[in-house]
Amino acid sequence: MTAPTSRPTARSADLFARASAVTPGGVNSPVRAFGAVGGTPRFIASAQGAWLTDVDGNEYVDLVGSWGPMLLGHAHPEVIEAVQAAVARGTSYGTPTEPEVLLAEEIVARTPVERVRFTSSGTEATMSAIRLARGATGRDVVVKFAGCYHGHVDALLASAGSGLATFAVPGTPGVPQSATDLTMVLPYNDRAAVERVFAEHGDRIACVITEATPGNMGVVNPEPGFNAFLAATCAAHGALFVSDEVMTGFRATKRGGWGLDGAVEGWVPDLMTFGKVMGGGLPAAAFGGRADLMGLLSPEGPVYQAGTLSGNPVATTAGLTTLRLATDEVYAHVDAVATTISEAASAALGEAGVPHLVQRAGTMFSIFLLEQGSTLTAVRDFDEAGRQHLPAYAAFFHAMLDAGVHLPPSAYEVWFCSAAHDERAVQHVLAALPAAARAAAA
Ligand code: PLP
């Protein structure tokens, strides 16, 4: 599918053709390729605040935010200054450094985890967390939910089997059946399925892993008490509750997704994973949890886990500076921007007669465009997220892109706002919405 555009895109198109010759699909992470919406991805030359500039000189208000990390906006002067100073001191030593301690202390102060270990990606964080859960419990089975993405860990790249309480099938070629034989995939928000799986396999389950509030099927909120129920069910059966906050951590609220329910209801995950915002746009991620569990990691304990660049001084400096700047005022601003944009998008879609749902999790939101006549009142799981009208989203996306607004190039994603989305950026988005809504209706 080619997408009409009134903007120059020759340089992006040329780079994409060259990239495709030397890199599969022309991209280094699949969703960047515009496969779900058609057309040519824009190659970005620079970014400042809320704005991206592509190699053809087009400017866009960015509502992707590098898929979450850029809470403060792009090239925040204090983050850049701190990173430049860190780079000038050397980029990696392979020894312990002070920024790692400071960032770990900041994470411990904001979340219920008592100790953390850094990794370079969210994928490594979830992979390490489930290894630790298996090591700690001496059990093998991992329970996850359909539509939750935890990175490209073999055991977690699994699809639901045919029955509810059956073991999973690999979600991609290259993952052997044996890698997912110990993974069970359940429908999200389905307490009965969780109870059934624990009734049948409870003594084999090492952990339940879930996104704190799923964002990888679009924002799908846990029904009230669902995370608390998972925590209690795990505790009752001697399994661990792993809350994946790679996306929501330090983003949905100051205390992440946990700030939306756990901090209010008083439950605590056994292990948590973090990434994105805590790296400030550089590769840093972490997993953490109860002190006794984390003490099982090598070199203190027997569960092996490591990384050449883990806790890298430049990345941890970027993350530390970002978190220190992410004050209550920042979250209030990002929240207000999310409200303004999501309400305006909903109004424009309503005006154009496009059925849709807006779902929010703190500062994060998604807009699900539905088929005419759809009776869906909320998206509660992956099956319902699949009821979106994908051609309508593709038309909406391209109309917004042509008007200078870069939305996520997939209907199953979060729209990310930042502290740098000021009045000018927000008004630019609002001005683009009515025509894009009409395009979605066509
Ligand atoms: N967990 C969640 C909830 C995510 O959203 C992601 C990435 O989007 C990951 C894990 C994997 O993180 P990374 O892409 O840094 O490996």
From TrEMBL:
Alphabetical keyword list: Cytoplasm, Isomerase, Porphyrin biosynthesis, Pyridoxal phosphate
**InterPro entries the UniProt entry points to:** 4pyrrol_synth_GluAld_NH2Trfase, Aminotrans_3, PyrdxlP-dep_Trfase, PyrdxlP-dep_Trfase_major, PyrdxlP-dep_Trfase_small
| Reaction catalyzed | (S)-4-amino-5-oxopentanoate = 5-aminolevulinate
Show the GO MF annotations: glutamate-1-semialdehyde 2,1-aminomutase activity; pyridoxal phosphate binding; transaminase activity
Localization, per the record, is: Cytoplasm
- Its signal peptide is none
Cofactor names? pyridoxal 5'-phosphate
Carrying N6-(pyridoxal phosphate)lysine, the residues are K276
This protein's pathway:
Porphyrin-containing compound metabolism; protoporphyrin-IX biosynthesis; 5-aminolevulinate from L-glutamyl-tRNA(Glu): step 2/2
Q: Which Pfam families match?
A: Aminotran_3 (PF00202)
Report the domain of life of the source organism.
Answer: Bacteria
Gene Ontology cellular-component terms listed: cytoplasm
Identify the EC number(s).
5.4.3.8
Q: What class of enzyme is it?
A: isomerase
GO biological process terms on file: protoporphyrinogen IX biosynthetic process
Q: Which SUPFAM superfamilies match?
A: PLP-dependent transferases
Q: Which PANTHER family match?
A: GLUTAMATE-1-SEMIALDEHYDE 2,1-AMINOMUTASE, GLUTAMATE-1-SEMIALDEHYDE 2,1-AMINOMUTASE 1, CHLOROPLASTIC-RELATED
Q: Kindly state the subunit structure of this protein.
A: Homodimer.
Family statement drawn from the similarity comment of this UniProt entry: Belongs to the class-III pyridoxal-phosphate-dependent aminotransferase family. HemL subfamily.
Protein name (Swiss-Prot/TrEMBL): Glutamate-1-semialdehyde 2,1-aminomutase
User: Whose protein is this, by species?
Assistant: Nocardioides zeae
